[in-house]
């Protein structure tokens, strides 16, 4: 009933707003707008209460948690693309969702007697409202001011990402606290404990055209059922990712990985990122969201080890420019590892509407691929910068540096070829070649021009 009332009120509210916009000084138009505004707010409250009556707190928290996670992803992407409007609008949605979670849970706790359980839950809501959300709002304001300036101002992206993750973690902690007193039977379908099913029970199973239930299917299987149009969008992103992968293949194929853990880690990260992008196409060894999350954790661990090794190289580099470049690339790796970790937590859900499968989380799938592509690019640049930095301190310190290098940079041995090339008889003629002029090129450019014969 409330939904019907809102549906009928919608065009009237729009007309009242247009009338007021055309005649802002008219008292009649203002009064008319106020009447429709009051009616709209009243019906929205009625609808909200009706939805609350038929929705359990567990389901509400599940949906809110996933929506906040998707909004966090959108915020990070908008930040990197410099899209101020999307950043501001999405951040506002996050604040609104968090405020509603706090309001609903505080009201729910009034139904329980005071004790350890209510204290834990209220402590989690207090932390979210008084500590996490103010920090998030502050970081959003800083980011918007920096992006809106005539001359873009530098700011810490990592700080913004950390603040965004804390919002998601805060809502997740509230949900965990609320679920403390649930029985195992009540929790058996809950995806918070790494189950394959989607959180909302009404969407746990999907009906096909034959009215057969697809129960408990993996997230990978759901991604494989995407419509062709959506698959094409993902394929486009995967193609861009493969271009970055080719660059990494070409870079690491130049080096012998024995004694060079940076190359080993780069290869490991590349393979894991390939598995994650295959997941978005419904392929590969990763079956569920939990597998993707674990893969993101492995990448983060490999990134941390690469950071440690590369920083050791930077510490020994006497060239300040090379050192700063390397440290800047390491910051990118940390940033994109954070983003990849966030994107990996988005769950896929599927509905059947009129015989057509509708899969949500597509934006999250493309975000996952974009984050992997950005991380791949950062790894390529880090490998190049690490090698260049190593050559600098070897030149300055001589054999003293070679005796105890952080990593050993050895070109991979080329494929065996005949020492003498057999030429055709008609090719036995004098060849005159013009002498090449010596020119200075940067180490990074020279390294980029070198091509290995194979890739891993």
From TrEMBL:
It is found in: Cell junction, Adherens junction; Cell membrane; Cell projection, Axon; Cytoplasm, Cytoskeleton. This is Catenin alpha-2. GO terms for molecular function: actin filament binding; beta-catenin binding; cadherin binding. Transmembrane segments: none annotated. Residues 190-209, 420-442 are annotated as: Disordered. Residues 431-441 have a biased composition (Basic residues). One of its GO terms (cellular component) is axon. It is a peripheral membrane protein. Belongs to the vinculin/alpha-catenin family. Coiled coil: none annotated. GO terms for biological process: cell differentiation; cell migration; cell-cell adhesion. SUPFAM superfamilies: alpha-catenin/vinculin-like. Residues 420-430 have a biased composition (Basic and acidic residues). It comes from the Eukaryota. Keywords: Cell adhesion, Cell junction, Cell membrane, Cell projection, Cytoplasm, Cytoskeleton, Developmental protein, Differentiation, Membrane, Nucleus. Its main location: other.
């Amino acid at each position: 009933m409330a939904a019907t009332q809102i549906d009928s009120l919608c065009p009237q509210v729009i007309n009242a707003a247009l009338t007021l916009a055309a005649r802002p000084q008219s008292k009649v138009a203002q009064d008319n707008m106020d009447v429709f505004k009051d009616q709209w707010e009243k019906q929205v409250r009625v609808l909200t209460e009706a939805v609350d009556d038929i929705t359990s707190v567990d389901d509400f928290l599940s949906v809110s948690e996933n929506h906040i996670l998707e909004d966090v992803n959108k915020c990070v992407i908008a930040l990197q693309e410099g899209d101020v409007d999307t950043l501001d609008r999405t951040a506002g949605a996050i604040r609104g969702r968090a405020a509603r979670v706090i309001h609903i849970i505080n009201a729910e706790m009034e139904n329980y007697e005071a004790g350890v359980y209510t204290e834990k839950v209220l402590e989690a809501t207090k932390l979210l409202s008084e500590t996490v959300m103010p920090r998030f709002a502050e970081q959003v304001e800083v980011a918007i001011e920096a992006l809106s300036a005539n001359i873009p101002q530098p700011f810490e992206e990592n700080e913004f990402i950390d603040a965004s993750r804390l919002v998601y973690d805060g809502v997740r902690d509230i949900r965990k606290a609320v679920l403390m007193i649930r029985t195992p039977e009540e929790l058996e379908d809950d995806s918070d404990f790494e189950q394959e099913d989607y959180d909302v029970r009404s969407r746990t199973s999907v009906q096909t055209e034959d009215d057969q239930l697809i129960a408990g299917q993996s997230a990978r299987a759901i991604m494989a059922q995407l419509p062709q149009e959506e698959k094409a969008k993902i394929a486009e992103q995967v193609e861009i990712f493969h271009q970055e992968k080719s660059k990494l293949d070409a870079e690491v194929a130049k080096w012998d990985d024995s004694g060079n853990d940076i190359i080993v880690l780069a290869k490991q990260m590349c393979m894991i990122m390939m598995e994650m992008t295959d997941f978005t196409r419904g392929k590969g060894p990763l079956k569920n969201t939990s597998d993707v999350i674990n893969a993101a954790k492995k990448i983060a661990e490999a990134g941390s080890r690469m950071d440690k090794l590369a920083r050791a190289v930077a510490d020994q580099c006497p060239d300040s420019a090379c050192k700063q470049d390397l440290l800047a690339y390491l910051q990118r790796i940390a940033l994109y590892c954070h983003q990849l970790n966030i994107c990996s937590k988005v769950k896929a859900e599927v509905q059947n509407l009129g015989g057509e499968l509708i899969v949500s989380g597509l934006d999250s799938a493309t975000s996952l691929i974009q984050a992997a592509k950005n991380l791949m690019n950062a790894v390529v640049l880090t490998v190049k910068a690490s090698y260049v930095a190593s050559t600098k301190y070897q030149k300055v310190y001589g054999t003293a540096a070679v005796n105890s290098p952080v990593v050993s940079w050895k070109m991979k041995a080329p494929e065996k070829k005949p020492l003498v090339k057999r030429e055709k008889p008609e090719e036995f003629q004098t060849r005159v070649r013009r002498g090449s002029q010596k020119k200075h090129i940067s180490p990074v450019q020279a390294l980029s021009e070198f091509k290995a014969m194979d890739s891993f």
